[in-house]
Amino acid sequence: MSVGGIVIEWWRSSLGRDDGGARAARARLRRCESPAEALAVAETHDLNARLKRLDQNPTSDQLALLATVFARLAGVNGEKLATLLGRQAMRDGPRALSELRFQQLIRTRSRRDLMVPLRRSLAVRGANPACDGHALAEDLYFWNDGVRNRWCFQYFGAEFAEISQEEIVT
What is the mean predicted confidence (pLDDT) over 102-113? Predict the structure, then answer.
């Protein structure tokens, strides 16, 4: 099973249910502003245990980012998040997330620093956003230049162009 599959399975069993325990866990995780705060929530450690069974060794920043972002999702089926953020209601109209805010999001390199801007970006999708949770989990877990480049193409709804290592701007 992939990282995305593990995260989806965890979300469904720990956060996606409509009961008091899941609602409380989502609320605690949504309020987290740092990895330390997310690590103080038991469901984050459940995610860690599941990933370790897959022979993954997530960092505290990876766990915190996944837990806090997935606590904000109402569903894990749908389009890729970057595509939704770049969607225009009308042709030539404004995008759901402004280009400036998207550029700030894409410039963020560390997962620790990504927690707050990503939370704010999700808010433009409404109180209960849904997206392709599998792809989102993989992207956040492996957040790197390749993922950020792919998000740019998805945001603009453009066909993906292969980017060589020499072209990646650091």
Answer: 95
